[in-house]
Write a structure and sequence with these properties.
111 residues; alpha+beta; 3-stranded antiparallel sheet; two-stranded antiparallel sheet
Length: 111
C-alpha cells in the first residue's frame, strides 16, 4: 500500500526544517540557522472498510476517520462504511454526540 489516504489522497509533503540555535537574529552569515529538507508524513491508519459489500483493508488519514464517525453520529450517510464499526458502536457514538453541549443547544433551539 502507498502512503496515501484512500479517500482524500493526502500524502507525504516535502518542506524545510529550521533549527533553533543562538545567533539567528543578526550577526554574521556563518551563524545563521540552517534549514534542512524534511518529509512531513500524514497520520495514516489501516482500517477495514466495506466497499461494494466486500471488506477491504485501506489506509485512511485520521481526519477522514473522524469525519466518518461524525457523519454516523449526525445521522448522515458516510462516504465509506467502516467494517470495525458495528451497530452497537455506532449507537454509542451517536449517544455520546447527543450528550455534547453543542448538540444540546441546537436541540433546544429547534424546540
Amino acid at each position: 500500500m502507498k502512503n496515501v489516504c484512500f479517500h482524500c489522497g493526502k500524502g507525504i509533503l516535502m518542506g524545510r526544517q529550521h533549527t533553533h540555535h543562538r545567533g539567528v537574529a543578526g550577526g554574521r552569515w556563518k551563524k545563521r540557522a540552517p534549514k534542512t529538507a524534511k518529509a512531513f508524513a500524514p497520520n495514516l491508519q489501516k482500517v477495514r472498510v466495506m466497499i461494494g459489500g466486500v471488506v477491504k483493508q485501506v489506509k485512511l488519514c485520521t481526519k477522514c476517520i473522524k469525519r466518518i464517525k461524525k457523519d454516523i453520529a449526525d445521522g448522515v450517510k458516510p462516504f465509506v462504511t467502516l467494517a470495525s464499526l458495528e451497530k452497537g458502536v455506532a449507537v454509542k457514538i451517536a449517544a455520546h454526540a447527543a450528550k455534547t453541549p453543542k448538540k444540546a443547544v441546537k436541540a433546544k433551539k429547534a424546540e
